[in-house]
Amino acid sequence: MFIKVVVFIFLGLAKTIMSYNGLRVTNGEQELSFELNKTWDGRISTDVSSTIHFSYKALEKMETHQKSYLSIVFTTPFYDDPPPEDFTGYTPGLWNFEVMEFFFANQAGQYIEIELNPYGHWLVYAFNGYRDMRNNCEDVSLNLTNNILPDNKWECRVDIPLALLPSDVNKFNAYRIHGLNEDRKYEALYPSTDKEQKEPDFHKVEFFKKLNTKYLLPPNFAELQKDDHDYSYIWNA
After folding, report:
1. If DSSP codes are grouped into helix, strand and coil, which group holds residue 205?
2. Which terminus of the chain is more solvent-facing, meaning fewer CB atoms within 10 Å of its CB: N or C?
3. How far apart are CA 192 and CA 206, in angstroms?
4. Overall fold of domain 33-236
5. What is the mean pLDDT of each run of 10 residues along the chain (237 residues)?
6. What is residue 227's predicted lDDT score, i.e. its pLDDT?
7. Per residue in 161-187, is it b (16+ CB within 10 Å) or e — as a string?
8. What is the pLDDT at residue 24?
């Protein structure tokens, strides 16, 4: 993959910008940036691409413990599909609506599924292996901000507590689902390459790609996960 690098020098400070998909350094802060523009099975999507940015959010000190986050910011087309009837917050079955989905996995096959929609609903599931649910994470609360922009774009900012990520997380995938009935579309950052697969299945971690945690997260990542008394039980119980 060809990655173009542009370096600007101004008043002795260097700013490096890398094109999608990869490391991006902006104003001294490192983030990983990606562009989702393919269908689940690898065809070029006819829709506008989604842009995704990951960054590390420093510790938030609570009275009894500390929290740190993987901050996700994405901008994607807003399709204005009907929202769930449930109140905002944790919503089972959210994959049946307009959603962006993020899956983070480790080498052992454990993974977390995080689903977000434009109306303030979310869903988090933790799995020990392929569709082997470990915890439905119904007590998880996410700091989520949605904006519908004038050009029919949905901009979302969400902070994912590091404790939700499986230990030694090293790969991920992202998906976009929208449309109704026969117009339903399933799109992926890293598509399935299994030509025998006839339907989308986003739980296949063998199609996930490397997550560059050494650039994104601090060296004491594992300790920071354990410091989160609210959610560390998900992977340590």
Report:
1. helix
2. N
3. 9
4. Immunoglobulin-like (2.60.40)
5. 32 35 55 96 95 88 76 97 94 97 98 98 98 97 95 97 96 98 96 90 96 90 89 90
6. 86
7. bbbbbbeebbbbbbbbbbeeeeeeebb
8. 53
Are the beta carbons of 204 and 192 closer than 8 angstroms? yes
Domain boundaries defined on the chain: 33-236
Written as six digits, the tokens of 130 are 């392929």
- Output DSSP code: residue 1: -
Burial class (CB in 10 A: 0-12, 13-18, 19+), 100: buried
**Structure confidence at residue 7 (pLDDT):** 30
Q: Which residues of 53-86 are buried (b: 16+ CB within 10 A; e: fewer)?
A: bbbbeeeeeeeeeebbbbbbbbbbbbbebeebee
Pair of tokens at residue 33: 């940036």
Amino acid at 171: K
The phi and psi torsions of 134 (rounded to 5 degrees) equal -95, -40
Q: Which two tokens stand for residue 229?
A: 């008394």
